[in-house]
Amino acid sequence: MGAVFEPIKPYIGSIVHVSKDEMFTEEVARQCREMLDERTVLVFPRANLTDAEQLAFTDLMGARVDFTTRQKANQTAAEDVYQVTLDKKINRQPEYVLGTFFWHMDGITVDMPPPKASLLSARKVAAKGGQTEFASTAAAYDHLPEAEKAELKGLRAVHSVAASLSPIADAIPEEDRERVTSIGLVKEHPIVWQRESGRTTMVIGTTADTVVGMPVAHGRALLHRLTEWAAQPDFSYRHQWEEGDFVVWDNTAAMHRVIPYDDTGRMMHRTSVAGTEAVS
C-alpha cells in the first residue's frame, strides 16, 4: 500500500500515515523523498523509533552524515545520532542549543554541502515550550514580488556561527565564549540558491550576518526582512511535539527554530542525510 500523505498547510507540511512494517521499505522511502521535495516537512506521529530504526530510515533516505562531533560530550545515543539537550552532563556546549531558539539552517558553516535532510525524534518533551517551527524558504522565494527577486539576484551573504549566537552571546560564560563562537567556518553563500533540480530556495537565518558589497545596516535589514517574510504563517508550520513523534525536513529548503524551554530533561535525537549539492 505504501504511505498516505495528508497536507498540513497549503505550502508546507504533510502528516505521513504508514505502518511501522512498511515504513522501512524502499517504496516508502522513495515516496518520502519525493514528498520532501514538494512539502518540505514530513511528520510521523508517535512513530516511537529506536536509534537503530531511525538510522535505518535515515540510510533509506540517503547517505548519513554527522557534522556535530565537537558538540558531543557524554552522549549515550548510537553513533551518528546527535542528542539535542540542555543537559550539561550530555552536551558540553548547551549554549549551542540555545542558539537554536532562532531561525537557522543546519550545516551552513561547515566545509561540506549542507545536509539534505534533518530527522528528529522526540524522546522526552518539555513541560513548557520546546515546539519546533519550520519555514519554507522555497515557498517564500516563489511568492516574492518579481522586482524583489531581481534585486536579490547575485547577492551573497557572509555566514558564521558567531553571527548565529550573537543574540545569546551574553548568556555564554566569558571564559567559554571564544571557544563556542569559533565553531564552524566563515562562509559566503548566495542568498538565492538556484538548485540543480530547478527549484529555487534561499539561504538565510541567523548565520547570515552581512551582505557582500552592501553597507552593514542595509544588508542586515535585508536579511531580517527575508527571514520575516519566510516565517509568515502561510509558509511556516509549528509542530507541537508528543513523545515518539518523528519529523523529517528538507534542510536545504527550510529554516527551523525551537520555542524556548528551560527543561534540561527535554531530549531529541537527530540524524542527518548528507547533502550532494554545494550552495556556492
From TrEMBL:
Per UniProt, the keywords (alphabetical) are: Dioxygenase, Iron, Metal-binding, Oxidoreductase
Instruction: Cite the TauD/TfdA-like domain residue spans from the record.
Output: 6-271
The protein's GO terms of the molecular function aspect are: dioxygenase activity
Entry keyword Iron? yes
Indicate yes or no for the key word Nucleotide-binding.
no
Matches recorded under SUPFAM superfamilies: Clavaminate synthase-like
Q: Which family does it belong to?
A: Belongs to the TfdA dioxygenase family.
Q: What is this protein called?
A: TauD/TfdA family dioxygenase
Q: Which organism is it from?
A: Sphingomonas naphthae
